[in-house]
Design brief:
By secondary structure, the chain is of the alpha+beta class. The chain has eleven helices and eight strands. Helix content is 45%, strand content 12%. Helix 4 packs across helix 6, helix 6 packs across helix 8 and helix 9 packs antiparallel against helix 10. Flavin-adenine dinucleotide (FAD) binds next to strand 1 and helix 11.
Length: 404
């Protein structure tokens, strides 16, 4: 305990002395800011660059990963303290992305020593950016129906097929993908999990334009792509187990994001974020009661649910002492977090009224534009990593034990 107190004090002192002041309050979302690393890394705002470098040196981009691969080697309690101290100072994470949140934990669990040596340090240092090649035109919720073929040829597989909705595929260096290595067996039993360098001849990426004119989504094509067999994670035809474990991490990560959004709410003063927004748009001096009782009720419910959810996430993190081993329960968190986030963002748009529907132009301020986009983006959260309906099916079957 005294050790943890000392650690907290040391971390606080170090952050006060070293973390760039300019980064305080910088928000990193899937769409904006932060450092996602990779060969084409950008740093937004620019001070993210020295911030990343100093955190790499301390192992703080992946605080609880083993130090032999460049992680911080911290216990889960110490890593939690570090995150708390950063949050207290409103500092953004030094590095973000699918390397840290998805493929890194999968490699630590299922990778060979050679695979860990090849990839983990690069993930920790933000040198390689990863994307996820799961979904295909006819395989989304029914993911086990993937058709991208991988045919063995000596020490390689030859890949042919198409992935879709590959977020940031055009900015990524490597992709982790599910491919079909045996079409004759039960569909789950013929899938292999494989890592592919996006610069391999035959890999091509086409960005998908949405009605807004842009999107993070891409289509990824494989035309006779030669991939070494040594890039397979776990067993050939054993990819379904790895794929499900990664999805559980992905769902926990999505839930954690909203858990900690709610968590930081306790530092906002005075009052709650939603109530303050209501005062800003609907009048009333700070501290006075909102006149609309229905809105008051909706805000109070949402804030209470936020708070209860943040505490539940925290309790679960505390319980998961060794690593982040999430089971099918991660579906409960995913569905609750993303549905709550939809409610919250819908309420924010409601409160702002006509100012809540700005898309572009000078008639709206930066926060208003971000709010509209956040409201629409919230719908995507309840689809990515498996839709809410699919999570409810998993909960019914694997948590509650209900029949099919
Ligand atoms: C923001 C975002 C980012 C994404 N990023 C990636 C990525 O990086 N890589 C990647 O591989 N994929 C990515 N995806 C794709 C995502 O995984 C799929 O969209 C998702 O799994 C749903 O598949 P689908 O779109 O094919 O919908 P479908 O599976 O066709 O589902 C359509 C509708 O039917 C419902 N439905 C389907 N089956 C059932 C069932 N058995 N019971 C009840 N309802 C059902 C669904 O809930 C949904 O409402 C992303 C998606 C989004 C929105």
């Amino acid at each position: 305990m005294a050790d943890l107190d000392n650690f907290r004090a040391e971390v606080g002192e170090w952050l006060d002395a070293n973390a760039p002041q300019s980064l305080r309050g910088v928000q990193v979302t899937a769409e904006r800011g932060g450092t996602w690393g990779g060969r084409r890394a950008t740093f937004e705002p620019p001070d993210m660059k020295p911030w990343l470098q100093m955190c790499i040196e301390k192992g703080w981009t992946a605080p609880s990963w083993p130090s032999e691969y460049g992680g911080g080697g911290l216990s889960s309690e110490a890593a939690k303290l570090l995150a708390g101290e950063m949050r207290k100072r409103r500092l953004p994470p030094p590095l973000t992305g699918f390397g840290l949140s998805m493929i890194g934990p999968t490699l630590l669990r299922y990778g060979t020593e050679e695979q860990k040596q090849q990839h983990i340090r690069k993930i920790v240092r933000g040198e390689i950016r990863w994307c996820q090649g799961y979904s295909e035109p006819d395989a989304g919720s029914d993911l086990a129906s993937i058709q991208t073929r991988a045919v063995r040829d000596g020490d390689d597989f030859i890949l042919n097929g198409q992935k879709v909705w590959t977020s940031y595929g055009d900015l990524s260096d490597w992709i982790f993908a599910l491919v079909r290595t045996d079409p004759k067996v039960k569909k789950q039993e013929g899938i292999t999990f494989i890592l592919i360098d996006m610069e391999t001849p035959g890999v091509s990426v086409r960005p998908i334009k949405l009605i807004s004119g842009k999107s993070p989504f891409c289509e990824t094509y494989f035309d006779d792509v030669r991939v070494p067999v040594k890039n397979v994670i776990a067993e050939i035809n054993g990819g379904w187990t790895v794929a499900k474990a990664l999805l559980r991490d992905e769902r926990s990560m999505i839930a954690d994001v909203f858990g900690s959004v709610a968590d930081t709410g306790k530092q906002r003063k005075p009052g709650s974020m939603l109530a303050n927004l209501a005062r800003q748009y609907l009048g009333g001096a700070d501290g006075t009661m909102l006149s609309d009782p229905v809105l008051r009720d909706e805000i109070a419910r949402c804030e209470l649910d936020d708070k209860a959810f943040a505490l539940t996430v925290q309790r679960t993190r505390d319980a998961a002492k060794a690593g982040h081993q999430s089971g099918p329960e991660s579906s409960i968190f995913k569905v609750y977090a993303t549905e709550l986030n939809k409610r919250r963002s819908e309420l924010m748009v409601d409160i702002a009224g006509p100012e809540g529907l700005g898309w572009e132009g000078t008639g709206f301020d930066k926060d208003e534009l971000a709010r509209t986009r956040g409201w629409l983006r919230a719908r995507g959260n309840s689809i990515e990593g498996g839709t809410s309906e699919v999570q409810l099916n998993i909960i019914a079957k694997h948590v509650l034990g209900l029949p099919d």
